[in-house]
Every structure is written in structure tokens, then in C-alpha cells.
Amino acid sequence: MAKTGREKIVGNGANGNGSSDASTKAEASTDVAEDSSRSDVISPIKTADDERVGNALRPRHFEEYVGQIAVVDSISVAVSAADRRGDALDHVLLHGPPGLGKTTIAHIIAREMDSRLVHTSGPAMERPADVVGILSNLDTRDVLFIDEIHRLSSAVEEYLYSAMEDFRVDFTTGQGAFAKTINLPLQPFTLIGSTTRVGMLSAPLRDRFGLVYHLDYYTEEQLTLVVQRSAKILGVEVTETGAAEIARRSRGTPRIANRLLRRVRDYAEVKYDGVISDDIAKSALQLEGVDRLGLDRLDRLYLETLAKNYDGGPAGVNALAATLNEEQQTLEDVVEPYLLKIGFILRTTQGRRTTPEGAKHAGVVQAPGVELKPDPQQTRFL
Predict the structure, then answer these.
(1) Residue 102 is a catalytic residue
(2) Where residue 8 falls among pLDDT bands split at 50, 70, 90?
(3) Which residues, other chains included, contact 263 with Cβ-Cβ below 8 Å and sequence gap of 6+?
(4) For the segment 291-347, what is each residue's pLDDT rounded down to a tens digit?
(5) How many Å apart are CA 105 and CA 87, to the nearest integer?
(6) What is the DSSP letter of 308?
(7) Of 16-20, 218-222, 228-232, 284-288, the least confident
(8) Domain 297-374 carries which CATH code?
(9) Helix, strand, coil: what percent of the chain each, to 5?
(10) Active site includes 349?
(11) What is the dihedral of CA 49, 54, 56, 58, to 10 degrees?
């Protein structure tokens, strides 16, 4: 059942003290106005317009959440059970590609638990003092959300072991003969970790999460519902076919769907009467460089380079990164996951290879054992 809630969102910066400046508080007033029944909401730091709009589009309760049905059903049961007992929810680990709703689920959990959400990230917690300061300020049943938890340093990570398991932190003050170990008890809290690279988490940390969920890409039907819901919130009129066209090009990711919706909205308002149809969506997204499968310019350049420069592979990711003048991590985390999902490339022990479908999309004819040749019938992708 949806709660009116007293969720308080506290953003935490690199200094680890959880404080916010005057400009952040001024921005927070916008979100408070959206829900006057919750006067104690403190908004996380938001500077870009897209980030503010994106936050407004987030579902606020499990009933509003689209997709990830098995994950949402399991978490909602666990939240309801913990709420009935008056206990803190077991620690939660959410992993999967970016933009699928991990942060949104953390916000919903805190709201359903009627708890405060303290939001920080792995890179922001540089020293043990940072994590001790945050943990010591948590109240009973508070939710600590750590984004990019795989980027925690080993020194900081070790402090979380006893905090998660026994709700206490042991730290040492002084040096040499004057060193003293202090045992600091903590209030029962819930740690929610979010990561796109779960394999980089150490086994001791991963084993301390009682609830572990993988978020997968969305279907076109689910993304169509996401686009229609977001369009209603933004006050944009979109036809069913227009929403489906945006969903088709959103790479299975709600964050991308919402971003493309805003770009198509701008195009429809400037060039047409503001109503988004499938033809208008196609024209707007072609202008943005997003093709019919959701691939952008970098995705297509990756495919072209692998198919033509390297004859379809195998090619190492370092060589591809050097050829494209891009960071290796950008290719591995941003470009390759979706190309792998739709079957356009393969990762092999020798390197990356294009599949026949990927080579065809890149305008190259590929046959087994035959050198790749340009396809004159397909020179464009849009």
C-alpha cells in the first residue's frame, strides 16, 4: 500500500559530511512544492534541467513502477514484511546496466519504509572517516544508498563489514602506545548498493547483502508504457505509435526513453503542433543521430570500424579504443553491452568480432570464411 511517507533525501558530497549549501536548498524548494504533504524533503543536488526533469519522472511507489516485475514483487514483499515487524529491511544489492531504475527503487524503498534516504556514492567515500561519519548519523531504519558501490576503496569497504552484519564500527584512534580501539554501536539501518559491475565487488561485501537483484533491459512494450507515463507528467500529447517509435529506439533503457522523449517534444513543439506521432518521432530522432535500433553515432562508428578496418575482427578493445580515439572503459560500459544484447558483436578470447547482422547494419556483407566487402545497397543506417 502506498504511503504518504516522511522520506528525507540527504545528498552526500565528497567531504562525506552530508551537508548541502544554500543553492542546493533553494533547488530543493521546487521538489517540496510538488508534494506539500512532505515538508521535510531535502532534494539531492541537481544542477542540470534534464536531471531535475528526470527526477520528477521517477515513479514514487511500487504501484507506479513499470517493468522489472519479479524484482519489484520480491522487494515489495520484503519491505512489507519488515515494515510490519518494525525492523530495518535487509541490505539490498541492485546490479545491472545503467539507466534501468536502480536509484529509483532505492528511493521507493525509503518512501515505502517511511524512512530517511542518505544518498552517496563509492568515489565520494574516500577515507574511513567518511564512512564512519555517515554511519554514526544514521537513525533506526534509515536507508543508506551507495551508488557505484564497486568503486569503494578496500579500507572503506572493511568498515562496512561489521556495520552491515553487527551494526557496529570498530576504529582505532591514536598511534603506537597511545592507540585505542573504540567500538561504536550503530542503529539498525538498511544499506542499498547499486553497481553496473557486480563482478568487481569483493566476495565478503557481496555476501553481506541479503537481497540481491539483477535488473535487465526493458521490452519495447514496457518502454512504451514508460514513454506514455512520462508524456502525461510532462503534459505532452503523444500517439500510441509515436510512443512505440521512441520506445523502439531507446535501447531497452527507461532513462534513454525519457531523454529521447524530451528531445522529440522539443522538435514537435518547434516544427509542428506539439503532438508526437510516429513520423515526427522518426524525424526528430534521425536529427539526433539515433537510428531505428537505437544506435547512436558512436555505436555505428564502432561497428563500421570493426567491420571494415578490422575485417570483422577479431580485434582487441584497446586497438578499437585507439582507432576511435575513445576510452576503453567507455566502449566496454557504454557501447558494447547493447551491441552484445542485440547480437551485433561477439566477445571472444581473441577479441571482438562482428556478427553477420552487425556487419549488415554497418553496410558490410559478411559471409563465413569470406573477406568482408562493402554493400553498395546499404550506405546509410537511418
Answers:
(1) yes
(2) low
(3) 284, 285, 288
(4) 888 898 999 999 999 988 888 889 999 999 999 999 988 898 888 888 998 899 999
(5) 19
(6) I
(7) 16-20
(8) 1.10.10.10
(9) 45, 15, 35
(10) no
(11) -170
Phi-psi region of 176 (alpha: psi -120 to 50; beta: other; left: phi over 0): left
Which position among 60, 141, 255, 282 bears the catalytic label?
255
What digits encode the pLDDT tens for the residues 157-183?
Answer: 888 888 888 898 877 776 767 777 778
Grid coordinates representing 53? 526533469
345-347 and 352-354 as β-strands: parallel, antiparallel, unpaired?
antiparallel
The larger pLDDT score, comparing residue 185 to residue 181, is at 185
Which amino acid would we find at residue 82? Answer: A
Torsion of the alpha carbons at 247, 251, 252 and 254, rounded to the nearest 10: -70
| Domain 8-214, CATH homologous superfamily name and number | P-loop containing nucleotide triphosphate hydrolases (3.40.50.300)
DSSP string over 226-263 = HHHHHHHHHT--B-HHHHHHHHHTTTT-HHHHHHHHHH
334 DSSP 8-state letter: I
Those residues with Cβ within 8 angstroms of residue 299's Cβ, 6 or more apart along the chain or in another chain: 335, 338, 339
CATH level 3 topology of 220-287 = Helicase, Ruva Protein; domain 3 (1.10.8)
Out of 190, 196, 224, 253, pick the active-site residue.
196
Evaluate if pTM is beyond 0.85: no
Q: For residues 38 and 5, is the Cβ–Cβ distance under 8 A?
A: yes
Q: How far apart are CA 239 and CA 58, in angstroms?
A: 21
Active site residue 147: yes
N-term to C-term CA, the chain? 45
Q: Is 255 a catalytic residue?
A: yes
At 132, list the grid cell: 564512519
Active-site residue, from 130, 142, 147, 291 = 147
- Long-range contacts of residues 269-274, Cβ cutoff 8 Å, at least 24 apart: 274/236, 274/237
Choose, from 46, 103, 104, 120, the residue flagged as catalytic.
103
Half-sphere exposure of 6 (CA within 13 A, CB side): 5
Domain ranges of the chain: 8-214, 220-287, 297-374
Quote the CA–CA distance of 155 and 158 in Å, as a whole number. 6
Torsion of CA 54, 333, 206, 185, to 10 degrees: -50
